Prior knowledge:
By secondary structure, the chain is α/β, with parallel strands linked by helices. The chain is about 35% helix and about 15% strand. It is built from twelve helices and ten strands. It has an eight-stranded parallel beta barrel with strand order 1-2-3-4-5-6-7-8, surrounded by five helices. The longest helix has 18 residues, at about 205-225.
Amino acid sequence: MTSLPDWLTYNRDSATLAAMLDSSLSTSLESLATESRDLTLRRFGRTMTLYAPLYLSNFCSSGCAYCGFASDRKTPRRRLEPDELRRELSAMKQLGITDILLLTGERTHNADFDYLLRSVDIAAHEMQRISVESFPMSIKEYRALADSGCTAITIYQETYNRERYENLHRWGPKKDFIERLETPARALEGGMKTVGLGVLLGLSDPREDALNLYRHVRYLGRTYWRAGISVSFPRLRPQTGGYEPPFPVDDHSLARMIFAFRIALPDVELVLSTRESAAYRDGMAGLGITRMSIESRTTVGGYHDLDNNEKGQFDVFDDRSAQEFCNAMRAKNIEPVFKNWEPAYNGPADGNSTILHPVKLQPCL
């Protein structure tokens, strides 16, 4: 068995975060919220950047016990063909969405790298910013995605507990813990400007996972100091298969985790998706979170086909329209931003240039 990297067992970096995550210590949730809010305002201003997920395919070759797209689920399988993808993109643009996250399952012959690359190329001609959440790839493959206009990848380790990871991933390529752990570094080596990390909260001890996630961020930040890093906080939600989280994370614990990450990582983008309720997301806006998804459809073809009754990867808890979400943000004196990236800055990063920060804001309607 391949040994764990040194950074994953290096504790000195995470001592401060560990203290903030410990609710038994004297640091109150309210004091953490205040410090997190002040840091967020100073570093990011009163804005919330927006994106939407677009599911390209629900084919999958892995057997993740907690996923509605696992290969043993009795889910109708399909992928978007080029004309269907263009219709999806058109429907999203009508909602004002220009920053999208393209998703697939693990690599299959129905949705392989060539399929993903073609999809990125199509989307890059229509949208301002393209990210991908998909299967692990080689440095060469990430370079090709970057050349086609993809600027970021998201890949969650799901859990950093190796024993639980291997038990939860029953078969398929995703079962390789180390392969997945090394993927963000390969993406940055391949020219991606930003990498998004996270754990699926509920699968393992959340405090242990949070500390290891933090160590991963710190390692990447030191090694690829020109790159951007974002951190997401997805909680396990109901899905086909009915997997119940053995380590449920309540609202207060999640809030403490978000505040602690903002204080420990003041310049890192923190993301909260529509897995969370409208009330919870509204409450967290301005307190540490700087990026949220909107109008999420977790089915393949869900934007153009509004009558799609297929079961998605997971249940969406905030189903507000983009306009309803924007109104809620403005009521909190936060400006929701659809566009904060110029397509001219797309393409691979290289060793001689710095990662360009967003430069042009386009508020939502």
